[in-house]
Specification:
15 helices, two-stranded antiparallel sheet, 374 residues
Length: 374
Amino acid sequence: MTTVTTSRARTPRALDWRLRFAVLSLIWGFSFLLIKVGTDGYAPFQVTLGRLFFGTAVLAAAMAVKRERLPRGARTWGHLFVAALLLNALPFSLFAYSELTIPSTLAGICNATSPLWGMALSLVALSEDRPSRVRVAGLGIGFLGVLTVLGAWQGFDGLDARGTAMALLASLSYPIGWIYVRRTLAGTGHSHLSLTGAQLLVATVQLAFVTPLFTAFPTRFPLAPLLAVAALGALGTGLAVLIQYGLVAEVGPTTGQMVTYFIPVIATAAGVTLLGETLTWSTPVGAAIVLAGAALTQARPRRRGREDRARVTEAEQVGATATEPTEATVVETPSTTTPKDRTPQAPPAPPCTPNQNQNPNPSATASPRPLSKL
């Protein structure tokens, strides 16, 4: 008689998803503080260029480890050019310029309006995305919160209109980019990581051309701002996307996108405690109203089946890389979602992702959702 013994190979366990969720929230929440510190030593375009460079380097390393290749096809690269502009180059630059005149706390709160813009745009651009009364109510509540943050009843007294407008335009750029990616890059057959890496590479090239036209080469390189830019890119634009993809794949887009609502809270706490920025009662109250409205705009009917809830387009996942800090953007499905900031496996968004960037080959029935941003 023979005895057969079997042994189970022990596989290393990944960090608990709650810990990764917390890390992701902190990285994206501190992005606005890092932008503020970076612009103290470098021009806004230079901060954006450095951010994209370091972020691209992280994703290039991830692609090398996984032996991923850049996508092929002139048409795909043409769409990536537009996606890179709308989800990375433009919003990153606008946030950097806005923080020259507004506090990082206000920039972080403006970033939280992306879901509201996305909801409004989906009513016009996505005929299959029919809003419920709850979602429409959330849209109204959210913009009421924006007016509260800005102190509309005081005539916006003491508010830098130009800087605030730039931050809001940056937040608007994300959902426009998500919709574009959803319509053009979904179903291309390329992995999410490949598309996201290519998108950041294109954005880096765009800034490399634009920056010399508007800024002079720095004559000195202050260390603190330089480290802030490096951290902003490597962590907030690179590592965060990779974390987001894994997070969404493990716990799903609904839980994964909740990180969006922690970003303005952390950005406000960081700005007040570390940068000494002032805070009036209307800022936290208005921020809470904005977040409540944003949460309502993401509500989905309960009757939708498991498959519908799991659906997310590859496009949305690619968009996730933009996320702000960034911003933002979010995704769905174990194999086709957009983790933060967003590492693709089949074109996906965010948050921007972002991805604010999270992964399989879904249909185009789900509406774009920001996960992140900056």
